[in-house]
């Protein structure tokens, strides 16, 4: 009986070794590359989040570097526009102090040169243009009062260049507001009087027409940009 038990036990032991439990058959064969068990879904999610976060960090770093390089380029690049505008303004601005030292008078927004010698109208204008100016143009009552205070027969930048007695300033504008003296302009004694002078100093209406080849003092005018 004991023997039978041993034989039965041996038979059972052999059966156990040769016939593995069904639960072990489903495990993957790691060496041969058999079917793997499905990965843990939570672990896969963490891996995707980690990869996404890493990509965002790389993108942010690249953006920061690009922005710093752009700002550095803007800061270090010279502003040529501002320099050009500033130089143009400086070049156009007259040195008022130097003009005053040369005998010019500053009034409102212009500089004026009052001559101490006499010339014809055209010679007077030539002198003014050589100074970067021109014969005076009267635009306001204040300027009219200013020009007649010197008590000299003085050329204005006004003349008639047509047969219809159309008076024109040296800048090409037509005369609108005038300060003709009594009875002027009149072409006195049939003379050709195509240029204008200041004659009646004590009157606001002080202008007189006169031949352009007469000799007179003159006033140059130059705009002063402050």
Automatic annotation (TrEMBL):
Signal peptide: none annotated. Residues 107-221 form the C-type lectin domain. The keyword Transmembrane applies. Keywords: Disulfide bond, Lectin, Membrane, Transmembrane, Transmembrane helix. InterPro entries: C-type_lectin-like, C-type_lectin-like/link_sf, C-type_lectin/snaclec_domain, C-type_lectin_CS, CD209-like_CTLD, CTDL_fold. Pfam families: Lectin_C. It comes from the Eukaryota. Coiled coil: none annotated. The chain crosses the membrane at residues 45-63. This is C-type lectin domain-containing protein. It comes from Ameca splendens.
